[in-house]
Structure formats: C-alpha cells, structure tokens
Amino acid sequence: MHADIHLQLHALAATELRHEAAAFRRRAADQAPSSPLRVQLGWKLVELGLRMVTPANRRLPLTLTA
User: Fold this and answer.
1) Which one of 21, 25, 33, 57 is CB 3.0 to 4.6 Å from 38, fit for a cystine?
2) Widest distance between CA atoms in the chain
3) Is the pTM of this model over 0.70?
C-alpha cells in the first residue's frame, strides 16, 4: 500500500472517530443525571460497594454523609 493512500485512510478514520466522539458527548450531555436524588443514590451505591470490598477488621477512612 502506498504511503499517501495509507495517510488518506488514516485521515478518514480519524474524522469518523471525531464525529462519533462528538455525537457521544452530545448524547452523554443529554443523559447527564440532573436529579440530586440520582446523584445521592449513586454515591450511596459507591459507599456500599466500598464497604463490601473492605475486610471486616478494617474500617473505611471516609464516611460519605449528605
């Protein structure tokens, strides 16, 4: 394969990836959790997960409270 063709294919692939990334960012901004309840629930689930993976004889150094 010639170098110029390889560069053109790479430029096309990079352009497609940029467009896909921009579309993903737009969708993610539309689906961002806007409810404080969802954010609070998310942090509680993180805290629960940390408690589950921490050994029983060791306490968590940080307790998240709202």
Assistant:
1) 33
2) 63
3) no
